[in-house]
Amino acid sequence: MSYDSEKAADTNKVIAVLEHADASNDDDNEVFRSNVAGENYRAVSWYGSFALMFKILFSVGVLSIPSVFSYVGALPGALLLIGFGAFNTYAAFLLGAFRLRHRGMHGLQDMAYVVGGRWYRELVGVLFIVGYDLVAGSGYIGVATALNTLSEHGACTVWFAFTACVFSTALAMFPKLAQIGFAAWVGVISLFVSIFILVVAVAVRDRPAMAPATGEYELGFYAIGRPTFLTGMTAALTIFISSGGTSSFIPIIAEMKNPREYKKPIGIAMGVLNVLYMVFALVIYRYCGTWIASPALGSAGDLFKKICYGIAIPGLWISSTVNQHLAAKYIFVRLLRDTEHLQSKSMVHWVTWIAVSLACGAAAFITAEAIPFFGSLLGLLGAIAYAPMAIVVPMHLWLHDYGHRRREGFRGKCQWTFHVAMLLIGLFMTVGGAYAMIQTIIDQYAANLVSSAFSCADNS
């Protein structure tokens, strides 16, 4: 063997040893370890992570965006989608990069602990649990709406929602994200097909299905609308939330086989998501104008309403499943972290997991049915939970690690100013959005638009 060949072989051996050592160190610093006996939670591939990330965001939100355009108009609506989509994508990459620099993070609450201490961790932890569990409850309501549509209100709406809760909880009780990864793919495909059919159906009609059947009518398509502060803030909040669930990406990355690959699923998921949002929203608004149903699946007439809801049921159901699983997983890890029971197959492991899964399902169902203004509650939740988790905390993380750049020349000052400005925008979204949604709830009560708790009424 020549000297060059021997040198190359020795170099390859050194690289292999270093890579092995680096992988071992990575494993030692992760909350879930792949080299221990028991349950191996680190089993999600990067494309499986894409399906989970995309399904969390591509859910009930896509059904409400077209109606938002009727408030603000096509151009402002498109700009809001582009702006919030780009920013939420950037914030998601910030979270992934922070996790890579600070190993062992399971969720946003761990990151909050690094930059703000115990009280910050507890606050973010509560926001995470409440936020994702109530979004799971909205999925129950969505499934109930679909079943009401298909059966023409064949049973009490509460029973339909309870059925959704039972099936969602049963699937969410699989302990590893990799085990529900296939379901995420099914959910993505079913909801995409459903909305694609809706888009084609509204485009081929000579007039919107909800418009008067005969005579003249005003379509209500505007390039620029004239919203009030209340409707404008509600529209901005709705569009922001549709891609603002990026805090869910961190526990998904924690269960990836190789957490270093986080950029691929985030980039693809956010890119595809925002393109689909733009296309679906603009086409539906172009052909329906102000005659858009809420949710949007009812905008093409009774027949297509049943077809679209029938196809969308797996997507709505699995949206609840993934969100409920993440809320339960946070509690589970918090209770058993750094104990032998976290990844073992012990009685403590299984009893804890089953108990928190059932508790999250019950809490989501009871809250969704007991609060008569649950839809507006979700908007309020978006302001006080998702805006801090998707904007304020990621900007705080960057300032914690790179705040010194304000003293490093013009470019550094610009970077620091940008992140401070976005943090302030996050605070504005929190306060302004909370005000808008509280006022909306007050107006609903004043107009007698609020139903009763545990109502059997048809919600289709």
From TrEMBL:
Any single GO CC term annotated in Swiss-Prot or TrEMBL for this entry: membrane
Location of the protein in the cell: Membrane
InterPro entries reported for this sequence: AA_transpt_TM
Transmembrane segments: 52-72, 78-98, 119-145, 157-175, 182-204, 229-254, 266-287, 307-326, 347-367, 373-399, 420-442
One Pfam family it belongs to: Aa_trans
GO molecular function per UniProt: L-amino acid transmembrane transporter activity
Keywords on record: Membrane, Transmembrane, Transmembrane helix
Record-annotated Amino acid transporter transmembrane domain positions: 45-439
Membrane topology, record value: Multi-pass membrane protein
Family: Belongs to the amino acid/polyamine transporter 2 family.
PANTHER family xrefs: AMINO ACID TRANSPORTER, AMINO ACID TRANSPORTER (EUROFUNG)
Protein name, entry field: Transmembrane amino acid transporter protein-domain-containing protein
Taxonomic lineage from the root: Eukaryota, Fungi, Dikarya, Basidiomycota, Agaricomycotina
